[in-house]
Amino acid sequence: MNTDKLSARLAAVAKYVPKGASMADIGSDHAYLPCFLAKNQGVRFAIAGEVVEGPYQSAKKNVLSEGLSDVIDVRRGNGLEVVQQGEVDCITIAGMGGALITSILDNGKEKLDEVRRLVLQPNISAISIRKWFLENHWRLIAEEILEEDGKIYEVLVAEQGEPYKPYHSKREMGLLFGPFLIENQNEAFKKKWTAEKRNWKRIFDQLESAVQTQETMEKKQDLLSKLQMVEEVLQDEKS
Ligand code: SAM
Predict the structure, then answer these.
(1) Domain boundaries, the chain
(2) Model confidence, pTM
(3) How far, in Å, CA of 143 to CA of 180, rounded?
(4) Is 142 a pocket residue for ligand 1 (Cβ < 6 Å)?
(5) Is 122 in the pocket of ligand 1 (CB under 6 A)?
(6) 96: alpha, beta or left, given left = phi > 0 and alpha = psi -120 to 50?
(7) How far is the CA of 51 from the centre of ligand 1 (A)?
(8) Which of 35, 56, 96, 121 to mutate to test the pocket of ligand 1 (most atoms within 8 A of CB)?
(9) What CATH class is the domain 8-165?
(10) pLDDT tens-digit map of 90-139
């Protein structure tokens, strides 16, 4: 990968960064995303934030060798501490777990007041990000799901505003599967949830044949409700 051609995963993130944005990419690693955006998408100003020395040095080296130091500031620090309030209008965080992404957002909440758009790409637990949006008054406006090199990734895009809007009546289902993704089920979506369904069923069967305690009963109940939801979601598409 280089800064002219992103992976399909990062390209799906880049697509949602508005032209002319001032942005921060938190956990930027090689700074491929801000470099690509500065070169190809008219980003005015970018911060590439990194907490670890190795990736921070690699980001600095790439930005320098691309001649982008005027546009991209590489800063070392934890999460949003590298951003000053009012400095950026878009934040991207990609390639981490959903829980780590929400903890980064939580720890820097005051930096989000003037941010208009969040583009987040959790490797796991997109549900924790959708819940965070609901609790923090961010409205999910778009979602993508894609497969690359045998792995399935989700991209969630949100802007400040009425957070319940995309969910309609079946909120629990929307939080788990993604309200936009349910409506437009592609191959990656079907593959992910068919595999999850098989996995939940396998665990359910194991619990069925174990000694029944309060804990196993609760786990079974939780799996049963997820299995019902996944069947309904995948069924909806067939009908
Ligand atoms: N964003 C790039 C991508 O999607 O290809 C890199 C993803 S890499 C798996 C995650 C990066 O986030 C690592 O370089 C790690 O050092 C950095 N990171 C993890 N926690 C962080 C935090 N709290 N603040 C800043 N960077 C963090």
Answers:
(1) 8-165, 187-238
(2) 0.96
(3) 6
(4) no
(5) no
(6) beta
(7) 7
(8) 96
(9) alpha beta
(10) 999 999 999 999 999 999 999 999 999 999 999 999 999 999 999 999 99
